[in-house]
Amino acid sequence: MQGESLDLSHDKSGSTVIAHMTPESQVEAMLRGQIADIVAGTVFVFIGVSACLIAAIRRRSGVRLVLWLGIWSAMYGVLQLSRGDSSFVAALPLWLQRWVPLANTASLYLILVVATIAFLEITIGPYRIFLLVVIFSALGIAIAAIAIFLRTGLQNSLILYNNLLATCSLVVLLIIVMVPRLSRRYIALPSRGVLAAGMLVFAAEALLANLMRSLHLRDAPILDSIGFAILLFSFGYVALQRVAASERRLLAIESELEIARQLQFSILPREIPSVKNLRIAAVYEPMTAVAGDFYEFLPVDEYRAGFLVADVSGHGVPAALIASMIKVAMQTVAEWAQNPAEVLRRLGSVLSGQLRGQFITAAYLWIDMEVRRAHYSAAGHPPLLCLRRADGALERIESNGLLFGVTAESDYPVGEVALQSGDRFLMYTDGIVEPENAAGEAFGDRRLEQIMRENPLLPASELCQRLLVEVVAWQPSSRTQQDDITLILIDVL
Question: How many CB atoms lie within 10 A of CB 239?
Fold first, then answer.
């Protein structure tokens, strides 16, 4: 017989003696008979583990299908390797062999759950409800079958129900994939040809195998592996299509965001205004590619200039679009640059009808170095900080009205500030004070004010960078920037 070896020798009388096979010979014979299953199972497990690692590294929604295909392939490989008479199992350590029947039973029933979830990733519309019903039904059967196995040791107690559910699901899915009108309605794929071919081959092989078993004919187990491999690779092709499409979309989005970033930076002031006896520095650090923060200068002559800082609620593209609207609106209020209340009132009136439920805080500072006076007003914005070098006092100047987006019209009180040599003013958005450390403590106004007090002689541009460094150091290294940050620092010489 195939796979059987006999040791023929002669005794002293010359008669032939048939010796039984040694354990090593038995293992060798088993290996020769099961080499195809062992190789196939190992390949499927390797493919499955590799796919899961790729999905774990990529961590994008487009690779979820790759993850489920990897689990599906690995479970099929485990089934191939853990058959009851497998020489692979016999070669395992005894403590590991005890777990093989449970792993085999779990894979046998749960593989339908995993396969259906994989199909769920490419379906749309009401058909998803059908697949969800299949998933929960298969999961219920699997839990019950595993419980029965743990109690009685019977592995195939519910296999009939599991196979019936799998067959019905496969038939329905095959119809949907093969019928163009249905596939366009329920399958989210640009091309279904490869998947349809793979499913057709798999279904034909499964039908042939079941027919042969029902007629008590011996089938070739390798055909099961070939059929599954064709289905798996056709599904893998679909997964690669989806990943490639997702990558193209992401590249397009990143390219568009980069253009948006360049456009947003282009609407910011290109240079610092030159005002006598003022040293000015500005810092703009968006949280993402584009930001909802905005700042603008309104220079009038060599002695006078206005300074605006604004912060749109939210982040990203929607906030950035509104920030660009502030740039346009500022052009309409330039003639009232010397009147902070009028600047804010008119800005709020122009923007209020365009905000669509979002809000803007803003602060405007007007400085006249000819008379050495400043006027300040704000719309729900953090206070203006003023460090007096003469006595080291730090003042919080608050002159707030309603933030933009609450009402179309609002009044904004104006505070007047006398300017002295050595005074330092800081206008900022709340992105500088809100970042939290690992304990959940905000950077806060006190720490911001402390850094200003500790560095009165540091040049304006260097102090701005120092503040950014301190904020980054305050946050855990694993946490990214939490909000947009804008700073305008003004020194009176």
Answer: 24
